[in-house]
Amino acid sequence: MYIIKLGQSYMADYVGLFDTKAEANQWLEDNDYEPRNCSIIRVKDKTEYAEG
Description:
Helix content is 31%, strand content 31%.
C-alpha cells in the first residue's frame, strides 16, 4: 500500500491508501499536484514486519 505526502514539511497533509504506486501517481496527475513537491510512501502491512 502507498500514501502520498502533500508537500515537503513534516507537518504536510497525507492522502491515501493506494494499492499500487501507479494508482498514487495517477491520483497526483488527476488532482493537479506537482510531483516534485510530493512524496509517495510505501506503507508496510503489520504482517510484513513479522516476516523481516
